[in-house]
Every structure is written in structure tokens, then in C-alpha cells.
């Protein structure tokens, strides 16, 4: 992220059209407030690069033994704690 241009909120507000033009050319910009990144202006092509959603079914079996012998029993014990 070191090569990405950063602008404060006020500077971004004043130069919004220039930031939009940069994004159109493929150059992302970060908008900061008090040194923290608050927003990003990115080209539309960046939106297609997002990772896809993870299918939770792929995690099936990864917690084997985590709940003890019986998942149903573990949940019942946790519910009983709050009664």
C-alpha cells in the first residue's frame, strides 16, 4: 500500500474530481482521517477482484472432538448455565 496516494478528508473533498479521474485511470486513493484510513476510491475493476465467499460446508469435520462426545449434550450444558 505504500504506492497508493493518501489524502485527508478535507483535501479529498476539495479534490474529489481529481481523485475520481485517478481511479478511472486505474490508480486507487485512500482517504484518511486523523491518520487512520477511512475509505478508498478504487477503479471498478478492483471490485471484481474480491475473493469469493467461502462455502462453510468445506469446514465440515474440522472441529471433530471440540464439543466432546455429543454436540447436543454440549449445547444443552451451555443452555443450562444460563437458566
From TrEMBL:
It comes from the Bacteria. InterPro entries: Antitoxin_Phd/YefM, YefM-like_sf. Antitoxin component of a type II toxin-antitoxin (TA) system. Belongs to the phD/YefM antitoxin family. This is Antitoxin.
Amino acid at each position: 500500500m505504500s504506492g497508493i496516494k493518501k489524502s485527508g478528508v478535507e483535501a479529498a473533498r476539495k479534490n474529489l474530481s481529481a481523485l475520481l479521474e485517478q481511479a478511472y485511470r486505474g490508480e486507487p486513493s485512500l482517504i484518511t482521517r486523523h491518520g487512520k484510513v477511512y475509505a478508498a476510491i478504487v477503479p471498478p475493476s478492483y471490485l471484481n477482484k474480491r475473493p469469493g465467499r467461502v462455502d462453510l460446508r468445506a469446514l465440515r469435520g474440522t472441529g471433530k472432538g471440540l464439543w466432546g462426545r455429543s454436540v447436543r449434550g454440549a449445547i444443552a450444558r451451555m443452555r443450562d448455565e444460563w437458566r
